[in-house]
């Protein structure tokens, strides 16, 4: 019984260490580098979501391009109210 409790304790400690490292890294990446968004509805047709309301497209929003003012003609820009 003591052997199984020691294994659970070590597993829980390793999980917590990994969790407390992975969460800040993931949050920083999503805030500073890029994030994933889903395009739904008819607002971007026919470029995105050509199938209409039955389907949706997934896009990568690049934060570095906007932050460094590297936006070019033809780029799709997402604005978030907040």
Automatic annotation (TrEMBL):
<dbReference type="GO" id="GO:0006627">
    <property type="term" value="P:protein processing involved in protein targeting to mitochondrion"/>
</dbReference>
<dbReference type="GO" id="GO:0006465">
    <property type="term" value="P:signal peptide processing"/>
</dbReference>
<keyword id="KW-1133">Transmembrane helix</keyword>
<protein>
    <submittedName>
        <fullName>Mitochondrial inner membrane protease subunit 2 isoform X10</fullName>
    </submittedName>
</protein>
<dbReference type="GO" id="GO:0004252">
    <property type="term" value="F:serine-type endopeptidase activity"/>
</dbReference>
<keyword id="KW-0378">Hydrolase</keyword>
<dbReference type="InterPro" id="IPR037730">
    <property type="entry name" value="IMP2"/>
</dbReference>
<keyword id="KW-0812">Transmembrane</keyword>
<dbReference type="InterPro" id="IPR036286">
    <property type="entry name" value="LexA/Signal_pep-like_sf"/>
</dbReference>
<keyword id="KW-0472">Membrane</keyword>
<keyword id="KW-0645">Protease</keyword>
<dbReference type="GO" id="GO:0042720">
    <property type="term" value="C:mitochondrial inner membrane peptidase complex"/>
</dbReference>
<dbReference type="InterPro" id="IPR019533">
    <property type="entry name" value="Peptidase_S26"/>
</dbReference>
């Amino acid at each position: 019984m003591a052997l199984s409790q020691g294994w659970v304790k070590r597993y829980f400690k390793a999980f917590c260490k990994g969790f407390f490292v992975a969460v800040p890294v993931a949050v920083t990446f999503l805030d500073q580098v890029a994030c994933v968004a889903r395009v739904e509805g008819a607002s971007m047709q026919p470029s995105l979501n050509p199938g209409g309301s039955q389907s949706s497209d997934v896009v990568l929003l690049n934060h570095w391009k906007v932050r460094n003012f590297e936006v070019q003609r033809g780029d799709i820009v997402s604005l978030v109210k907040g």
